[in-house]
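Comment thread on ticket #2218

A.B. wrote:
> Attaching the input chain for the structure job we discussed in standup.
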Amino acid sequence: MIFEQFYLGCLAHASYLIGDEQSHLAAVVDPQRDVEQYVAYARDHGLRIAYTVLTHLHADFLAGHLELRDRTGATICLGAAAAAEYAFTPLADGDTIDLGRVRLQALSTPGHTPESISLLVFDLDQSDTHPHAVLTGDTLFVGDVGRPDLRVSLGWSAASLGNLATVRFLIGRGADVMAYDPVAMPAARRALGVAPHLAFAATPMDAVAGADALIVVTEWKEFRSPDFGALAAALKEPLLFDGRNLYDPALVRAAGLEYFSIGRR
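C.D. wrote:
> Ran it. Output below, let me know if you need it in another format.
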């Protein structure tokens, strides 16, 4: 495996070229605007840059992914929740990029930005279960973490970001999610974009109809006193996960629902 860091001190920006010496394929992660250094390094080591990956959409500098695509024909990969005006391959949690005996695996790590991912780097000649490294973008730093509050100016709260993480976790594992929120739907659509296995409902009961389970993660007034009997009848499986401890367990179970809450029985 070839693993090379490129560091730009004035921006404290680390980028990486990762390649396989046998397949001669490489990926560049979080490229700087000046891409000649990656092209030259790949040429000197007999590699073809097949992919360029952004761990998150950068707001503080211009990335070089578009120029790398134009120079080398590389496929651009972004987190599955990204919204971009150019073609890209979305990486959901667990998705992989295979370079031969080197593999990159996406790990969904929203927070600094909603679409943020980290990349597990596997040298398959050493192990296919224990990664050689993890590239965390702006999720983690040495002795620090990336700011998770940058979306506050757009109206996001910590709870909202957490709810997005729940949705991404579910769809990243192949679950079909029908989401409803009386206030945050427009913002959620912008943050999540067009994602496989995700749709938005027009009413709460539309979200519940035929579902295998109901997960409540917000505390809006209209969610506080639902008709539990109607919910039980509408659900395919009578499962209710209450992430806000809104309900009286006895009332929920009396309606025939199996009830799970946080720290309560």
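A.B. wrote:
> Thanks. Noting for the ticket: The two ends are 50 Å apart (CA to CA).
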